[in-house]
Each structure stands twice: as structure tokens, then as C-alpha cells.
Write a structure and sequence with these properties.
The complex is a heterodimer.
Chain A (H helix, E strand, L loop, with lengths): L2 E6 L2 E6 L6 H8 L18 E4 L2 E4 L12 E3 L13 H8 L9 H14 L5 H7 L11 H14 L8
Chain B lengths: L4 E3 L4 H7 L5 E4 L5 H6 L7 E4 L9 E3 L3 E5 L4 H5 L2 H6 L1 H8 L4 H4 L4 H7 L6 H7 L3 E4 L3 E3 H4 L14 E7 L3 E8 L6 E10 L2 E7 L7 E2 L1 H9 L3 H4 L17 H18 L3
Parallel strand pairs in B: 1-3, 2-3
Antiparallel strand pairs in B: 4-5, 5-8, 6-7, 6-8, 9-10, 10-11, 11-12
Classes of the chains: A alpha+beta, B alpha+beta.
């Protein structure tokens, strides 16, 4: 089998994969990093969103071989070094931006990409950005609130807790 | 998904050579092909990943035309200031394909080579008098698109770029099918001097097409009202759970009128 290597959350990793091995399968089944979820497996739901070379992508629709040599970031790398939640993760908790939590890793990775590109998004821009992330619990309201709140915090603005 | 051999050539010559392997299939962003393979609707022996070929990347804006290389991703079209200045309708089109993650992977070459009957780019290629460039020839839009998922591409032939003529004005109006974000019906209108070109996607059972009646009416008078008396037949329109042929025929006219208004007509 061909071998593949890449950097995941700053750590050099490698493994043997088949051509058909998806990036999400490599992450979950070989690296045992199960924070990245598989929801629909048809590139609709966004539970599997990770960053490849700094951009959010659906890891169920990329072959592991295609990410060879790439820098991959997953939900496992989002928390602060001391184990405390990142601003974005904390905002999801504070605003009740999750219920069952299944979509949350993808939501957080997708939102992190948005805030990198657009540190001051409008509510409409947040909602449009989440087009490819499906949540069946929250109705999105609190997810949007969490992202807007995190954006404000990251810009250095004082945010009132709910 | 059936297994296959994955190859990632570093230049166009090697890519064309790799396409000569048995049951080879070109892979670009993979946002359509990967799900298709999961459903076992495609089972290539070799997947030739074109995203590492430098000759297939980039956007060139000239005085009369714009060339987008095949492996250019939707996100790159969406964020190109140069392109936005030249053909803003094309940038708008790219910015509404799929979702941000799909746009971070999907490419223009993949979209036109696949020729999904509801894809956005084929309408732009038809309306903007486009040319599909391959590794060995140039194919005009009307010759390239040959029906649902069918194109003029030969075995082993790779789309290398798409070239568009710069219009005086243009607009793409997409009525979105909300679950898939594909066009339930989309109309790309382009105006070159007095000539109006109207290309329709998502509506016909034969894939993307130009509507002669609407073009004639709008070339005579570039106003939304000029589209009103034009008969848009429901014959050959797609019937599915999202809409009837008559509904799609109606949408063609509505989207066309919106496009005319967006162009200031």
C-alpha cells in the first residue's frame, strides 16, 4: 500500500493507506483522532470539516493521498496549550451553541476559518458561511450567537455574557 | 468505494501520460467525483489528481477575454479582484456554488468536464461565448456541452482552461434548490453590444442550452418587458420532486427578467 505523510496539528504523522482511503478515515481510524466526525458522508453536512493548509474543507471528500505533505488542523488542536477552551470553543459553551454536539467539531472548524478571513462578520455572513454545516438540534441561532460573540472577543471588544 | 491507484503528476505531460492508464479518470477538486465513487457510480482504475499541475492554475485577464485555468478553485475565482473588475457576474456565480468548503476544493475544469445538468459554470461558458481549452485543442462552448454529463472530451483528454469573452454587461440569476444548492433553474445573461446571449442551466433534460427566443427578443430590445411575450416551452424540461417542467419554464423567464434588470435593462 502507498504510504502518506502529513502534519496534523503540528505533529508529523505517516501511515499506509489505500488510494480510496479518505482523509477523515486516515484521521479517525489510523491516527485514532475521533474528534472529526462523519455525519452524512456525502459532503453535505460538514461534521467532518478540518483545515488543510489553512483552509476549511470536508475531510470526507478528500483522499488521504491528496493531503500528502499538507498541514492539517483538526478540532483536537483547537484548545489552548494548557487545555483550556479556545475563545471560539468557550463561546459555543457560553451561548449554548451545541446540544448533542455531533456537528460541533465541524462547526468550530468552519467558524474558525470564517473568522480568519473575516474577523468582523455580520450575522448574515455567518449564516451564509454555515451553509455547509448542518445542525439538527439548535436551530442555528445559538451557534450564530456564539460565533459573533467569539469574533467580538477576538477583536478585543468586551462581550456581555448571556 | 472500490479501490484504485492514486497518482499525482507534477506537470501536464505526465498527467496526459497517466490518463493513458486503463480506466483512468481525472480528479480535480473531487467534490462531485468522490461522492459519485462512494456510491459506486464510478469506479476508475487510476485516479489522476490534477491539482499538482502548475500549468492548470491561474487567472489571466486580457482586454477582450478572461482565461481561467482548469484547476483554479471556485474560491480563487470568488476572491479575484481582477476578475471582479472584468466580469463581476462570473465572480458572483463562483461565490454561490455549493458552500465554502466545497468552493475551497471544487474547480472550474471539474465543473465543465462533468457537465452536471444543474451546474452553474456551463451556463457562463455558453453565455460568455466561451472556449474550453484542452491539452490538444480548443472547443467552442456549443460544441463542448453535449447533453447531460456528456461533453466533447475524448478519452485521455484533459481540460486545461476555460476562456470567456468579456461582455459589456452580464448577470447570473440562480434559483437555488435549497438542499443541494445546485440551480433549480439558473440563467446567465451576457450582453455584447446589441447581442444578448441567454444560457439556461438546471432546467432542460438535455443540460445547458441557449434560448433563441429570449436572445432574439432581448437583442431587439434590452428590457425585462421584452421577455414577456416570448414563449418558453416546457417541452423537454426536467420533471422531478423539486419542480414540474412548467415551473422550470416559468423560472427561465423570471430569472431572465431579473438578469436583464441586474444589467440595467
Amino acid at each position: 500500500m502507498p504510504s502518506v505523510s502529513m502534519v496534523v496539528n503540528g505533529r508529523q504523522v505517516s501511515g499506509e493507506v489505500e488510494g480510496r482511503t479518505l482523509l477523515v478515515e486516515f484521521l479517525r481510524e489510523q491516527l485514532r483522532m475521533t474528534g472529526t466526525h462523519v455525519g452524512c458522508d456525502t459532503s453535505q453536512c460538514g461534521a467532518c470539516v478540518v483545515h488543510v493548509n489553512g483552509e476549511s474543507v470536508k475531510s470526507c471528500s478528500i483522499f488521504a493521498m491528496a493531503a500528502s505533505g499538507a498541514e492539517v488542523a483538526t478540532i483536537e488542536g483547537v484548545a489552548n496549550a494548557d487545555g483550556t477552551l479556545s475563545v471560539l470553543q468557550q463561546a459555543f459553551q457560553d451561548h449554548h451553541g451545541l446540544q448533542c454536539g455531533f456537528c460541533t467539531p465541524g462547526m468550530v472548524m468552519s467558524a474558525a476559518d470564517l473568522l480568519k478571513i473575516n474577523p468582523n462578520p455580520s450575522e448574515t455572513e455567518v449564516r451564509e458561511w454555515l451553509e455547509g454545516n448542518i445542525c439538527r438540534c439548535t436551530g442555528y441561532h445559538n451557534i450564530v450567537k456564539a460565533i459573533l460573540s467569539a469574533a467580538a472577543t477576538l477583536r478585543g471588544e468586551a462581550v456581555a455574557a448571556e | 468505494m472500490y479501490d484504485f491507484q492514486y497518482v499525482k503528476p507534477a506537470n501536464l505531460y505526465d498527467a496526459v501520460a497517466a490518463m493513458g492508464s486503463e480506466d483512468a479518470q481525472a480528479l480535480s477538486g473531487g467534490q462531485t467525483l468522490t461522492p459519485t465513487m462512494k456510491q459506486r457510480l464510478a469506479q476508475p482504475g487510476t485516479l489522476v489528481d490534477l491539482t499538482g499541475v502548475p500549468e492548470l492554475k491561474g487567472i489571466e485577464v486580457g482586454p477582450d477575454s478572461v482565461t481561467i485555468k482548469a484547476a483554479t478553485r471556485h474560491v480563487e475565482v470568488e476572491r479575484s479582484a481582477e476578475l471582479r473588475a472584468a466580469i463581476p457576474a462570473l465572480v458572483e456565480l463562483a461565490s454561490r456554488i455549493g458552500d465554502p468548503q466545497v468552493r475551497n476544493r471544487g474547480t472550474i475544469g471539474g465543473s465543465v468536464a462533468n457537465n452536471d445538468p444543474s451546474a452553474c459554470y456551463p451556463a457562463a461558458v455558453m453565455a460568455l461565448d466561451g472556449v474550453v481549452v484542452t491539452n490538444n485543442r480548443e472547443i467552442s462552448a456549443s460544441d463542448f456541452f453535449q447533453g447531460v454529463y456528456a461533453t466533447a472530451l475524448e478519452e485521455n483528454e484533459i481540460v486545461t482552461a476555460v476562456r470567456f469573452r468579456r461582455p459589456d454587461s452580464a448577470s447570473y440569476q440562480k434559483f437555488v434548490q435549497p438542499a443541494s444548492r445546485f440551480a433549480l433553474t439558473g440563467v446567465f445573461l451576457a450582453k455584447f453590444g446589441p447581442e444578448a446571449r441567454v444560457a439556461v442551466t438546471g432546467a432542460s433534460e438535455n443540460g445547458v442550452f441557449r434560448h433563441a427566443g429570449l436572445e432574439q427578443a432581448l437583442s431587439a430590445s434590452f428590457t425585462a418587458a421584452a421577455a414577456d411575450p416570448v414563449a418558453v416551452s416546457a417541452d423537454g424540461m426536467i420533471q422531478d420532486l423539486h419542480g414540474t417542467p412548467a415551473y422550470r419554464a416559468h423560472l427561465i423567464k423570471v430569472m431572465t427578467k431579473r438578469a436583464v434588470q441586474a444589467c440595467g435593462g
